[in-house]
Write a structure and sequence with these properties.
The protein has 206 residues and is mostly beta strands. It is 7% helix and 50% strand. Strands 1, 2, 3, 4, 5, 6, 7, 8, 9, 10, 11, 12, 13 and 14 form a 14-stranded mixed beta sheet that branches.
C-alpha cells in the first residue's frame, strides 16, 4: 500500500506523514494578482454526464488575463454553444441562436446547458494547479506532480500528462472532474501557452 504525507499549509507548522504520496492542504490567497492565471489555448474533447443531460463533443478554449472564449462543438464539428467571459459577466450563445447572460459561468451553464461548467476553478485546474481563492487539497506524487485536487466541492483527477520537455511546463493530457450528479472527462489534443521562460509554445498529442 502506498504511504502518504499530509502537509497543512497555513500559519501553524505542517503535520507530515512519510510515504510516497503527499496530500497538501493549501489556504486561500486573496491578493488580486494571485487570481490571474496564465494565458492558454486548448483544443480537445469533452464528455459530460449530469443527471438527465449529456454532452460529448469538441471544445476549444482561449483563456487570457481579461477573459475567456469557449466553443463547444458537436461530434460533426458544428458549434452548439459559445461562452464568453469578461469583466462585465458571462454570455452564452446557443445555435438557435439565443443569447443568455449572467454574472458567473457556473450558474449560466447549469441553467442553459443543464450541467455546470466550473470556470472559476477550471481555468486553473486544467493546468494542474489549484484556484488560489479558496481552500484546496492536493495529492502530489513523488515528483511533486499533481495527481488530484479537491476544491469547492469538485474532485479533479489527472490521469495523464504530456511528456516532460526541457524548458516547457508539464501540462495535463487527460483529466476527470466530478461532484455529486456531474462527471466530466477532458482529453486535451492540443495546448498552446507559454514556456517556463515566457515564450509561446504549442503541443499536439501523438
Amino acid at each position: 500500500m502506498l504511504g502518504s504525507i499530509l502537509i497543512l499549509v497555513g500559519c501553524a507548522g505542517p503535520e507530515v506523514r512519510q510515504g510516497e504520496m503527499a496530500t497538501v492542504v493549501i489556504q486561500p490567497v486573496h491578493e488580486q494578482s494571485a487570481m490571474v492565471n496564465e494565458p492558454f489555448i486548448l483544443a480537445g474533447r469533452l464528455v459530460v454526464n449530469a443527471r438527465q443531460h449529456r454532452f460529448s463533443g469538441g471544445i476549444r478554449w482561449q483563456h487570457t488575463r481579461q477573459g475567456d472564449e469557449i466553443y463547444l462543438f458537436s461530434p460533426l464539428g458544428q458549434v452548439i454553444a459559445e461562452i464568453f467571459r469578461d469583466q462585465t459577466g458571462v454570455r452564452l450563445v446557443t445555435s438557435e441562436p439565443a443569447v443568455y447572460q449572467a454574472q458567473d459561468a457556473e450558474y449560466l451553464t447549469s441553467q442553459v446547458l443543464g450541467w455546470e461548467l466550473p470556470l472559476a476553478g477550471m481555468q486553473f485546474w486544467v493546468r494542474g494547479i489549484h484556484f488560489p481563492g479558496t481552500v484546496a487539497e492536493k495529492d502530489l506524487d513523488k515528483n511533486r506532480r499533481t495527481v488530484a485536487i479537491r476544491q469547492d466541492g469538485w474532485q479533479v483527477v489527472y490521469r495523464s500528462y504530456y511528456p516532460e520537455r526541457e524548458g516547457m511546463a508539464v501540462l495535463p493530457k487527460l483529466l476527470e472532474f466530478s461532484r455529486p450528479n456531474v462527471k466530466m472527462r477532458l482529453l486535451v489534443d492540443q495546448w498552446q501557452g507559454e514556456t517556463k521562460s515566457g515564450n509561446a509554445t504549442g503541443r499536439e498529442l501523438p
